[in-house]
Amino acid sequence: MSAVRCIDLCKTYRQGDVDIKALDHLTVEIEKGEFVCLMSPSGGGKTTLLNAIGGLDIPDSGEVWIAGERIDQMSKGELADLRLANIGFVFQAYNLIPVLTAQENVEFVMQVQGVSSAERRNKSFAILEEVGLKGLEGRRPAEMSGGQQQRVAVARAIVSRPELVLADEPTANLDSKTSTELMELFTELNEHHNTTFVIATHDQRVQAYAKRLVRMLDGRIVDDVEQHAA
Amino acid sequence: MNIVLRLAWRNLWRHARRTWLTIGAMVFSNTLLVFMISLQFGMYGLMIDNTLQVFSGHMQIQAPGYKDDQKMRQVVPKVRPLAAHLRQELGTDLVSARGWAFGLASSEERSYGIGIYGVEPEFEARVSNIPGLIAQGRYLEKEDASEIVIGETLARNLRIGVGDELTLLGSGVDGSFAAAVVNVVGIFNSGVREIDRNIAEMPLGTFQEVFYMNGAGHQVVILAPDLDQAQALQQRVEAMLPADDGLVVHGWDALQPGLRQAIQADMSSAFFMYGILVILVAFSVLNTQLMSVLERTHEFGIVMALGLRPGRLGRLVMLETAMMGFIGLLLGALCGALFTTWFTVNGFSYPGMEEMVANFNLPGRVYPRATLLTMFAGPLVVFVFTLAAATYPALRLHRLHPVEAMRTN
Known about the structure:
The complex is a heterodimer. By secondary structure, chain A is of the alpha/beta class. Chain A has one domain: 3-Layer(aba) Sandwich (Rossmann fold), CATH 3.40.50. Chain A is built from seven helices and ten strands. In chain A, strands 6-7-8-3-9-10 form a six-stranded mixed β-sheet, with helices on both faces. A four-stranded antiparallel β-sheet of chain A has the order 2-1-4-5, covered by helices on one side. Chain A is globular, with a radius of gyration of 17 Å. Chain A starts with a strand and ends with a strand. The mean pLDDT of chain A is 89. Chain B is α+β, with helices and mostly antiparallel strands. Chain B folds into two domains: 198 residues, no CATH class; 165 residues, no CATH class. Chain B has 15 helices and ten strands. In chain B, strand 2 and strand 3 form a beta hairpin. Classes of the chains: A alpha/beta, B alpha+beta. The interface between A and B is medium-sized, with 28 and 24 residues.
């Protein structure tokens, strides 16, 4: 069973008087445990595809299947439950909750999932240590560097061991050292936990870690190649 | 503490000044409501007590239909033994029997139609202020004496004083002619013009003899220790009445419908004003929470992307509002309690109040009546309206689209 299956997806945005085709009859299938990079120039449709896969945006037509379940016809609430249970998100701008500490940000999603207090605490400490933030658990986002915030965001995304992690330009605001550390962390999770990664990026360094490169242009896939990761 | 609670609490203080301003509005309105409602209830209590203690008591036992159409023949049989029995069974002296007749009171110079009450001199002072309001002479002393006390206005109208004789003419319970000559032994001044002009009191024994009552009377007046106990006491009295006499017990609100209507009218206008105050506070909360939600649209988009249903986000907004409302409730009730307590000791008055309240037989200073109800009714209503005001911003989150929300800065 595929981790992700998109069939003939179309999505058009209206910008002023102009219609922009973000997805143009796009079909793609991603197997469980794959490490996929979506590459395209700005406006190529990779974020739109990522949003469609994550159930954040509904395509105008076509089908989206996640772990054998069709999601493009689900209600808002069902999509929220699907994301909570199966998908981890990492955003370009970290998007942490500013009034919560690093540990609370990580725990927040688990609390919504109904994980017990003790388990939340143990898991959050463990994952923050895993992403190299031991000792910074009590800091709020404003008290951390960009790299540290992105690690918290990654910890939040993977703490519940989701089957699928969607990352939109995760290294865009990071220096090269932190980017490398982050990608190594992704690679490790992919290899050890068989987590499927779909990463939308411009970053050439990120592409080097991918096992599969999907190049997009004007909402269509123009190239789809397997490669050996660095 | 639960993370959602922590999140809600910290969200409140992102804009501490705005939160305090909103809480300040709640505290102000709650303090005002606690004080005003306490003052209002204190005033009503005084109005009721002062009015009822003058003459009508908290309840009266009467023959059916007597209240609406006072006829001599609608009697309470063996009225004095009944009153004595109630005093014994209830363990209180605040019970007194009365008879009533309409008659013509004539002095040497003038005649006036008045209401003549036969009262038990020993017990009347326990249920009515009139014995204590004797301005000249003395009150009635003996059950069978041919004496009478009259109001100051009536005495002036009849041009008589203490020691003068008064001729009474009327009809007895059987329709026969009733007449008596009695001595004026006292003149009272109740402060209520109607009473001072139209009422005279004579001993019940003499009254029964003059009007051929055959031991009957027209009322047994009962005063409760305080207004709060009147309802329960009335139920006890009703249970104690002889079933075969068909007597009824009327509460104060039935005996004094004008008083009840005056209170209801005053309450309506006061609660209208309170309603406006509460709505103003609710709009202040609506503004704060709507701003708060709009400012956090991006953040809400993120948590929705992470898997939070809009309903949970709505509950978060409601939780934040409830926390804010609860602080407002506690501080408002506390300030209101302190403010009101000071006035319950020192009383409340303002220029011109004395003249206004005299119409209701009230003293110049009013003491607020602080109870759990007056302390918390207003703040609880504000709390409920606060929550109601937050439902719009909370429901608005259902329309939020994660991608669009995350694009918002």
